[in-house]
Design brief:
Blueprint (H helix, E strand, L loop, with lengths): L3 E5 L5 H7 L6 E6 L8 E3 L2 H10 L4 E4 L2 H8 L12 E4 L6 E5 L5 H12 L8 H6 L10 E3 L5 H9 L4 E4 L3 H4 L11 E5 L10 E6 L2 E7 L8 H11 L7 E6 L7 H10 L3 E3 L7 E7 L2 E7 L11 E2 L2 E6 L10 H9 L2 E5 H7 L7 E5 L4 H13 L3 E6 L8 H12 L8 E5 L4 H9 E2 L5 E5 L7 H13 L3 E5 L9 H10 L7 E6 L7 E6 L12 E5 L5 E4 L5 E4 L6
Parallel strand pairs: 1-2, 1-4, 2-3, 4-5, 8-9, 9-10, 11-12, 12-13, 17-20, 17-21, 18-19, 18-20, 22-29, 23-24
Antiparallel strand pairs: 5-6, 7-10, 11-15, 13-16, 14-15, 24-27, 25-26, 25-27, 28-29
Helix pairs in contact: 12-13, 15-16
Length: 556
Amino acid sequence: MAKIAVLVLNQASVETARRLMTALPGAVLYGSAKRTMRVDVSFEHFKPLVQELFAQDIPIVGLCAAGILIRSLAPVLGNKQHEPAVIAVASDGSAVVPLLGGLHGANELASSIATALSIAPAITTTGDLLFRTALLSPPAGYVLANPDAGKQFLADCIGGEAVCIAGDAPWLMESALPVSDGARLKILVTDRSIDIPGDTLVYRPKSLVLGVRREYPHPSPLLFAAIESLFSEHSLSPLSLAGVVTTNEFAGDEGIRSIAHHYKIPLRISASLVLPKVIQKDIAGYQITLYQSAAPVDIQQIGQPLGKLWVVGTGPGAAAWLTPEVKAVLENTTDWVGYTTYLNQAEPWRRGQQRHDSDNRVELDRARLALNLAAAGRSVAVISSGDPGIYAMAAAVLEAIDRDRNPEWDRVELQICPGVSAMQAAAALVGAPLGHDFCVISLSDILKPWAEIERRLELAAQGDFVIALYNPISSQRTWQLDQAIELLLRHRSADVPVVLAKDVGRSGQRIVTKSLGSLVGSDADMRTAILIGSSKTKTIQQPHQKTWIYTPRHYE
């Protein structure tokens, strides 16, 4: 996923965008497809893109009039506690205006952009202007424990009240806040768990790290309760947790991973930590070591990350059929692994990821490569077309794990993300031929014998299933489809409707409907999905509309 989205509407803005992007590592440049521009990603319509980025919590920098951004986002604005930074930048770089996301670093982002453009940002937030700091948006390494109290606290400061600061807060000491030891308003920076008075802002430094090792094969499910008790016992706040650290041996443990997910903190792999220990204790079948630093801990500098492997399906090919989940994975990983054709199809969503291309017939080798990359701490996407669990790489990855039993792969976090299959897309284009019971059969005899394919076709035909045929024909397999048609006609009427869907969702898409009796092997190729109706499948014609095919849900 893009860390920051920079949007331009014309070529004149591209140079300015490239200048300011030098201060924005990981930023992605989006440009209008209506104009020829040298950008990272092209878009058709501005408003839907802005709303989608906003919903995904991605900071937005628009080189356009502020009003365009405001009107685009007005329908989706809600709680300011949950909005990303939105910045308007003049197309010539003469002005930088933070519009939204003051609680999420908008002013800081605007300042970075302004520095890159050698201008002053047009910051209008009173607190930032008066005190040269954002009380409600602390820097990395700190979190505001009671943001609901922030608005009144800031209003009192703007009204002239002084502030008493306790704890290590360098960014506050360098600000222009009116500091006084005897002030009513207090700012406390601590990882201690305390009852917070109404006139106090509390910042939690990310100064705590949990070291976790499994002690027993079947630990207790009461792990979270035990950890919460540990924090309570030592009067420490879980908000100060910077991360969880474990060793290679236990990186695959679900309990340890669940701690990181529960507290929304990184899990890192390291043999040792050079941090002061608070306590080491065996609880719920785990050895828990709590480390406490005097300053915020940069958890990314400890050990290596837990490798993750996503197996994704990009759908039949149309961008509209790419799920938001898969799009986010494609944009956010470090490595792509897949058949060259599928990697090329996903190229519009690549943000500098390293490609690992391979031939279409080396699925297990491809799966092993992906698992090895993830075991080394990489974030890897194995890319299939359609749905990865249907004649695709999800099964290959699991088969490699099952066959090799490589202990290094046990620490890889595996997630399979569904996609739109070719048969679903083809069915949607003609109606609902899969509206009742159906089955899917591949005619490829590369991985299973033809006799088994024939047996399954026979049984499916006898059962009167709608049948989706994958891999119907290729340059090396020219006779199987004709033989399958002959077999099906023994059990099914020649006038049963058939759908031939070639390159669904891609350039050159071709949808043909005909009867089973007129179907011949030369009608299809390797890029064609075939849907063969059951005895109940119907064809209907609405006035002035195309012909629809569907299989009724109710049998008469």
